[in-house]
Design brief:
alpha+beta, 690 residues, PH-domain like, globular, single chain, Tumour Suppressor Smad4, Rossmann fold
């Protein structure tokens, strides 16, 4: 433990005055809320010309106002001590007095010291200038002169009555007349701020793609006005590329060197996010020399992705953050906390077509996407115009779907025998469906199961590879290469999640797959990877879809009357609606489904795979319009015209900067206490209106 001395004229403070128990660094059982590898700093600072006692304890910064009390003797002048020590909570959070202000370092954006207050408010230099400056004065530490220490941090507006998921920037400026104390605090904060963490990565160099044509065509203005100042405040070296055509982002990610960047960020709508994800995934397949048409598996990209909303609906950003606020999304990129996001692969009978990040829809939404291409001159209004036309037409499409179902193991089997497969999370029986929130236990459970399976598969493949080399070394042996084996190594994750221990045989037992066939005349068919929420539909079309559980929701809306279609839209628009209660809507939780039209089943001699043109058999191009028979697929805003489609969910295939949305709740009456949903362990309730 390090306890610094106070400047001349300042009062000394003992570490025992703080509530948080502080032990020496040599103690092996250090308090859970602190990091044993770091020192504990305790000093007096001035904040807004008032004296505060400031403590840096592990990953927490605590400050409390110093209050003068009536001296017991006329000659003594003492400061009021903090309350006595109290034991820490079982969860690892330290208890401080009610007058204490606690800031977690995960919410700190940057730290800067300066000789004056104005100098400490300047943004930190980029990483390149840091290296050059440190190399010039190497070995000769300069005499410190800074007396001001500014801490920029982010705060979630949990008590907001309109948007409790929105974050805003805050600032603290401490003053101490001793420059050595200020330097020590600055150095220690920088070390802890950029210390490696399994779920946090502070970005230093960022590749940013800006789509100036998405939404209201304000992508460039959005970045310059709201995003760039936040990146500069954090000292991020951002390289910006403004796109000029479709699929330019994908082409750049496939051909350029990305080794100098820590992450990739996009400023645009859902289509721009889909381009980034597709580019990173196909790039990784090329690096591993996998067949892009029929890959044996889908590798995980190395770079995480940041999403800045600047489109028409921004369903991906809204589903991840619970809001479409631009500054909130930029703050999440800076804070660096990331989670795994499910990505679905879309393929036909012959090859892999693309990857889907939000929704793959046939019927109504497919018609809206196809028809809106003819009205691009209308801007975002083209979706409303095309949507009204497709809604009034109320067309239905004959289709057959085969979806993969699994039995509810959790209801009939003890926890010790739950199959250890990430896909089996779809079959975890739940009395009530859960909503995905921040710190979602369902997504954490799926991630941990995937790591457990990856470890066993890596050990098994390594053992098979060694046996094949000893017994019969042939170049045709189908064992994993070094690059492929590296992908199977588990990612580091927090180890505080209790997992059920199952046998290896139960984990490998995927032969009990149950296929369910559904036929009918449908108004709309949706494969939802996320909730697809937006400002107009806060719950989205798939309210209970999770961000990282390895499953997708298959939503089947049967063709009925226009009145029922209005009921469906009203249930998706309000916060209290639930489409599962509608009799003409069926929702299935699955990890894979196959689609085919009943009309195309009898014409299998015509190959329509990979078609990007209007579908029509040869010789009938001049006959009746094919749009009267078949619809199109809407895949993240892009039109796909294949009739033989297979959609499969891949559990947490890509890392995204997010923490997850927080729940909305009406103001509680006096005397009542909120109940935490089963999907979140530390959900924060706020007073958000319907």
């Amino acid at each position: 433990m390090t306890q610094t001395k106070q400047p001349a004229g300042g009062s000394s403070t003992s570490a025992s005055d703080f509530i948080a128990p502080i032990s020496s660094t040599g103690d092996s059982k250090f308090n859970p809320c602190s990091a044993s590898a770091h020192d504990v700093l305790l000093n007096n600072f001035q904040l807004k010309k008032k004296s505060y006692r400031v403590l840096l304890h592990g990953q927490q910064l605590v400050w409390e106002r110093l209050q003068k009390i009536k001296p017991p003797h006329p000659t003594s002048d003492t400061k009021a001590p903090l309350p006595a020590d109290s034991p820490s909570q079982p969860g690892g959070a330290c208890l401080y007095s009610p007058q204490s202000h606690v800031l977690h370092l995960d919410d700190v954006i940057s730290v800067r010291s300066g000789d004056t207050k104005v100098a400490s408010l300047k943004p930190p230099p980029p990483p390149s200038s840091n290296r050059s400056s440190s190399g010039s004065g190497e070995g000769v530490p300069a005499k410190p002169t800074s007396q001001y220490l500014t801490i920029n941090y982010a705060l979630r507006l949990s008590k907001s009555q309109t948007d409790c998921n929105r974050w805003e920037l805050r600032r603290l400026t401490f003053f101490n007349s001793d420059p050595y104390i200020v330097r020590q605090w600055d150095q220690e904060l920088q070390i802890r701020l950029y210390s490696p963490s399994p779920t946090r990565m502070r970005v230093r160099r960022l590749l940013v793609f800006i789509n100036p044509y998405g939404g209201r065509k304000a992508g460039a203005q959005t970045y310059e006005r709201h995003v760039r100042p936040i990146f500069q405040l954090a000292g991020v070296d951002a390289t910006c590329i403004t796109t000029q055509r479709a699929n330019q982002v994908r082409d750049i990610l496939l051909s350029h060197d990305l080794g100098v960047y820590d992450a990739v960020c996009c400023v645009g709508g859902d289509g721009t996010v889909a381009e980034v994800i597709n580019g990173l995934l196909f790039r990784r397949m090329r690096e591993l020399e996998l067949d892009e048409q029929r890959p044996p598996y889908i590798p995980r990209p190395a770079l995480p992705v940041g999403v800045i909303p600047a489109g028409s609906t921004d369903t991906i950003a809204y589903s991840m953050h619970g809001t479409a606020d631009v500054r909130t999304a930029a703050i999440h990129v800076i804070l660096g906390q990331h989670r795994g996001l499910d990505v679905c692969s879309v393929s036909n009978g012959q090859s892999l077509l693309r990857f889907c990040a939000s929704v793959l829809s046939y019927g109504y939404l497919g018609d809206v996407a196809a028809q809106s291409e003819n009205y691009r001159w209308m801007g975002p209004r083209r979706y409303e115009y095309s949507g009204v036309k497709a809604f009034l037409s109320n067309r239905g499409y004959e289709a057959e779907l085969r979806l993969l179902e699994e039995p509810d193991h959790l209801l009939t089997t003890p926890m010790e025998e739950v199959p250890q497969s990430p896909d089996s999370v779809c079959s975890l029986g739940e009395s009530l469906p859960s909503v995905c929130y921040a710190n979602c236990q369902r997504c954490s459970f799926a991630s941990s199961i995937q790591e457990q399976q990856s470890t066993l598969l890596f050990q098994e493949e390594s053992r098979k590879s060694q046996l094949s080399l000893r017994e019969q070394p042939e170049p045709e042996d189908s064992h994993l290469t070094a690059n492929e084996s590296a992908l199977l190594r588990p990612r580091p994750r927090p180890g505080n999640l209790q997992l059920p221990t199952g046998s290896i045989s139960s984990m490998r037992n995927l032969a009990n797959e149950q296929w369910k066939v559904v036929r009918g005349n449908f108004f709309m068919i949706c494969g939802a990877n996320i909730t697809c929420a937006c400002a107009r539909s806060p719950n989205g079309i798939s309210r209970y879809s999770h961000l990282g559980d390895g499953c997708l929701d298959l939503i089947l809306v049967k063709k009925t009357s226009l009145l029922n279609n209005v009921r469906f839209l009203l249930n998706t628009a309000g916060r209290s609606g639930d489409i599962r209660n509608l009799p003409f809507v069926e929702v299935y939780r699955t990890r894979k489904f196959q689609f085919r039209t009943l009309a195309a089943a009898g014409d299998e001699e015509y190959s329509l795979a990979g078609s990007c043109q209007p579908i029509s058999p040869p010789g009938e191009m001049g006959a009746s319009s094919p749009s009267t028979e078949f619809s199109s697929w809407n895949c993240d805003g892009e039109v796909v015209t294949d009739l033989d489609i297979t959609m499969r969910s891949h559990c947490q295939l890509i890392e995204v900067f997010m923490r997850g949305p927080h729940s909305y709740s009406k103001p509680l009456k006096s005397g009542t206490t909120p109940s935490t949903p089963a999907s979140s362990s530390d959900n924060v309730y706020c007073c958000c209106k319907d």
